[in-house]
Specification:
- Helices cover 30% and strands 19% of the residues.
- It is an alpha/beta fold and 478 residues long.
- The structure holds uridine 5'-triphosphate.
- Residues 112-119, 126, 163, 194, 218-221, 223, 249-251, 376, 404 line the site of uridine 5'-triphosphate.
Length: 478
């Protein structure tokens, strides 16, 4: 607010701004609000970036934008997880290079944790959800301990950047502080919030969640690129000598943020942005499809992929578009600097969501069906902006098991199951006998904490620390 500007002037300016846009309803309850509620509402109105929102109401709220599918769409070339005969040397060299880059402190971890976690319905930041089969360790704990393990092994600082949103920033920070950053130096953990945009009803009107509160939503994980630049994290990375950002989502307890092969191949191929994929479980699986088309690598969301393409077969009879995006990326710091310098915009997507609102009497209601549009950008839409990209296929069960829902598919339950399966596999590969039930599933519950091992190879020298496993044992290896 300019000096001398009164609350009344602010109110009038906000009212004009709203009325010019047919959004006058936002001030409907003004006379009932107390001074702090009034000031909150004016702050929210003044923070709305109308230059972004006005055109999006026309293009994405009042209309459904048509997906932009290049006519020459093909599956993206993918490096397999195991090298073919001609590539063994390349993979070995890449692994060594990846280890060197990690040990030289050139790789930072970056967790996007600004989402609202609506499907999970947990009352708090998703990273605070306990997800391990044994020991109730939270997602943030797993990531922090992974970073600490890498830090300790290489005796190098490994900064961790976490993107939050206005809705969960303070709670996330307080949680990490209360946990003493799980043993990481506080100065190596940076939290910064992403931008928020208003949710709009299907007529393009701002939604009130209370008489004094406009419904705002984080601007999608694509907002992370702008937030990295705007919040000073990129500049901070430069000071620390970081060259590569290891991007992952807060909901995936299996992620391996410091995978030497991925990092090494990213660097060796000169890629600016890389992505991990896994074979899709079925033609219509709800994951993004990593493709090439229009001269660039791009991800086509499952909802945008025409059925004829989703069901297409290659000459051998396999699924032609089989590379499911796992939302695990490497991005060069210089790439993000380049694309965020000047007018930078990822395309916006329309997401129809349930947004709690108030009725004509001012009472809060949560509709049973989506009632509003959230406007989001997606980080994978930066892929076409990279001059060089690289795609690595991995085993899904080794690296991906997202926590999206309370039960069923992609839930806490399934993430625990997948962590347990992976831990048991790692132990068996190291020669440990793991009791299994008649259906082949492990008959034990094991959590391998990152302090014990962050990959299968690290288990081998530690097998003497593993107790003899009996059916139904529950063991936390630290
Ligand atoms: P999802 O798209 O699964 O959304 O986010 P979500 O918020 O976790 O869950 P729902 O859809 O409301 O149930 C995938 C990842 O991207 C992050 C999330 O925190 C999660 O790590 N994300 C999503 C952001 O950081 N910001 C956003 O605006 C959206």
């Amino acid at each position: 607010m300019a000096a001398g500007e009164t609350a009344e002037t602010r109110y009038q300016q906000c009212r004009d701004t709203l009325e010019q846009r047919g959004q006058g309803h936002v001030l409907r309850w003004w006379t009932e609000l107390d001074s702090s509620q009034r000031s909150h509402l004016l702050d929210q109105i003044e923070a709305i970036p109308w230059e972004v929102v006005d055109p999006l109401i026309q293009s994405h709220v009042l209309r459904r934008p048509m997906p932009d599918i290049p006519t020459d769409l093909q599956p993206a070339p993918v490096y397999p997880c195991e090298p073919g005969a001609g590539h063994k040397e390349l993979y070995e060299e890449a692994r060594a290079l990846g280890r060197e880059l990690i040990a030289a402190g050139k790789v930072a971890a970056f967790t996007v944790a600004g989402g609202q976690g609506t499907r999970l319905g947990y009352d708090g930041p998703k990273g605070m959800v306990a997800v391990t089969p044994v020991g109730d360790r939270t997602l943030f704990c797993i990531f922090a301990e992974t970073i600490k393990a890498v830090r300790d092994r290489h005796q190098v600082s490994v900064p961790w950047y976490i993107m939050t949103s206005a809705a969960n920033h303070i709670q996330t920070l307080e949680y990490l502080r209360a946990e003493s950053f799980f043993g990481l130096p506080e100065g190596e953990v940076s939290l910064f919030p992403q931008a928020m945009l208003p949710a709009l009803d299907f007529d393009g009107r701002l939604v009130l969640t209370a008489k004094h509160d406009i419904a705002l939503a984080p601007d999608g994980h694509g907002g992370s690129l702008k937030a990295l630049a705007a919040g000073g994290a990129l500049a901070n990375m430069r000071v620390r000598g970081i060259e590569i950002i290891s991007y992952f989502q807060v909901d995936n307890p299996l992620v391996k943020p410091f995978d030497p092969l991925f990092i090494g191949l990213h660097a060796k191929t000169g890629s600016e942005m890389s992505t991990k994929v896994a074979a899709k479980t079925d033609d219509l699986e709800r994951v993004g499809n990593v493709c090439v088309g229009g001269g660039a690598t791009r991800v086509i969301e499952y909802s945008d992929l025409p059925d004829s393409i989703a069901h297409a077969r290659n000459p051998a009879g396999g699924r032609k578009f089989n590379a499911g995006n796992l939302a695990i990326h490497l991005l060069d710091v210089s790439f993000i600097e380049r694309i965020t310098d000047g007018a930078f915009a990822l395309p916006y997507r329309r997401a129809e969501k349930v947004v709690p609102t108030i009725d004509d009497a001012g009472a809060r209601q949560t509709p049973g069906e989506p009632n509003a549009v959230k406007l989001e950008t997606f980080v994978f839409d930066a892929l076409p902006m990279a001059t060089k990209t690289f795609v690595l296929e991995v085993e899904r069960g080794e690296e991906f098991s997202p926590v999206k829902n309370p039960t069923g598919v992609d839930s806490i339950e399934s993430a625990k199951r997948d962590q347990n399966r992976r831990a048991c596999r790692w132990l068996e590969e190291a020669g440990v006998n793991v009791p299994r039930a008649s259906d082949g599933e492990p008959d034990v519950l094991i959590t391998i904490a990152p302090s014990f091992a962050i990959d299968a190879e690290e288990v081998l020298p530690k097998t003497r620390k593993v107790p003899r496993l009996m059916p139904r044992d529950q063991v936390l290896l630290t």
